[in-house]
Amino acid sequence: MNKRYVAVRLTVLIFAVLIMTFAVLNVGAEDSEEETMPREYGEYIDSLPDSVADQMPDGVFSDESGEIERAASEIVSPTYFLSVLLRAFGARLEELLPTFALLCGIVILAAVMHTVSSHLSSGISSAVETCVKICAYCSIAGVAVASLDRFREYFEGLFASVAAFLPLSGVLYAMGGNLSTAVSGTATLSVILTVCQALCTTTVIPLFCLCLSLSLLTCFGGIGATSGQSISATVKRWYNTALGFVMMVLTTTLAAQSLITSKADGAAMRGIRFAMSGFVPLTGGTLSSTLGTLAASVELLRGSVGVIGIAVILLMLIPTVVELALLRLVCDTAAFIGGSLGCAGEQRLLSEIGGLYGYLEGVAALSGAIFIIAMGIFAATGVA
Amino acid sequence: LTPMSDGMLKVYGIAILAAMLCLLLKKWNAETATLVKVVGGVVICGICLGAVSPIITYMYELSQMSGMSEQISVLVRVLCVAVITHVASNVCKDCGEATLAGYAELGGKIEILLLSLPLIEGLVGTVIELAG
Fold first, then answer.
1. CA distance, residue A119 to nearest chain B CA (Å)
2. In chain A, what residues touch B72 (CB-CB under 8 Å)?
3. Which residue stretches of chain A are H helix?
4. A62-81 as b/e: b if 16+ CB within 10 A
5. Number of helices (H) and strands (E), helices first, in chain B?
6. Does A128 sit within 8 Å of B130, measured CB to CB?
7. How far apart are CA B125 and CA B132, in angstroms?
8. Is the pTM above the cut of 0.90?
9. B71, closest residue in chain A (CA to CA)
10. Residue pLDDT, tens place only, B9-45
11. ipTM field
């Protein structure tokens, strides 16, 4: 039980880091000059799912950089994300009430059948008990598997949006003179995307299913039932640790690479400016200061695009995490009702499924956090 | 006090009547007493099963709403088989035929297993599908 609270605290911590990353990004709309956005920005916005696009401020869809910066300033405000969070909570709560009713119905029916069978002779009673268990476990497993669709959709949307962001980040790096960073940063983000995609699509949901199968076997009195330990809990703990380690290595690589290449690009650009102001007669100084103004404008633009990129990921992440948290609450409540009615097997299975939702919640938060940090690095990297 | 249904009043009446008849007949004719006990038990079970039919109908309606109709239908059939087997086994025990009671229970278990077979197949299929 303590491990579960550790997972909850970890998820809350990840969210806190994400919100702080989001809050420190510098977005200012007042001093900017109006510029037309690169074509890649339009392609990125067009690739967003409808559910995300509907929640974005109108300025995000504009071609003018000033409008986009104003929209980014609106996104950064706490009221915007609070309203998104509350809307997601309300919508998901309404959707999950039938699931809660169904689980409670299964548990109550199982309790009634257990009580009826306890009044039968011992031989028949055990046969009826087994049949009731099979019915209840089949139904509960069916409910758990049906809820995986939205999680799949989240991953598909997340990877599609990051893939669409890659060309845009390359262009904006190049516009700021960070040519080496454009190449290395985009390549590393592309590697992170490929690794995450491979890990999440090929392992996360199969592991959930494997753990659910193990839980079913455990609840039937098979593997691990006598020791009272859950095999699925051990499996998912190891998996989460391994996944966290891989993600940490990838993010550190991206951060270090961006820092080093941006410094190198900065040194190269300073050399160009010095050469321009020293060796180009008359207009050299003006050209050099114009380059500086352009760099500041691109930096602001990059900050705004970074904020929009992070907002897109958060708008996908928040409903998913809220839904998983509510599903977990539903399972835990149904397990509590099962325990109160004396259905030990059903209680255990529901608790295990609740734990599995916690694991999915952790993976969703972790995968979202990686890309948010990557976009934060993109937005915070200074122009050359 | 909640009003009792006619069915339940009949059950109590038959039970008390059968018990008194058994008590009277036991001294003079033990075989007839056993017969009265068996007949009384079967009649009571019949009335009880008739009384639960609205509950079963309601369960079917609920199962159709929740999409669990297959499971509920199997559960109801299993419950009926279990009750009938229980009654048959008890009758055999009352007649002093413990071996026959055991056979009746064995038959009931086999029937329950046969009824549960689609569910077991479904569960195994789900596990294979999930793990595969």
1. 10
2. 109, 135
3. 2-24, 39-46, 50-53, 65-76, 78-118, 122-146, 148-175, 179-199, 205-219, 231-279, 284-340, 344-380
4. beebbbbbbbbbbbbeeebb
5. 5, 0
6. no
7. 10
8. no
9. A135
10. 888 899 999 999 988 888 888 888 888 888 888 888 8
11. 0.73
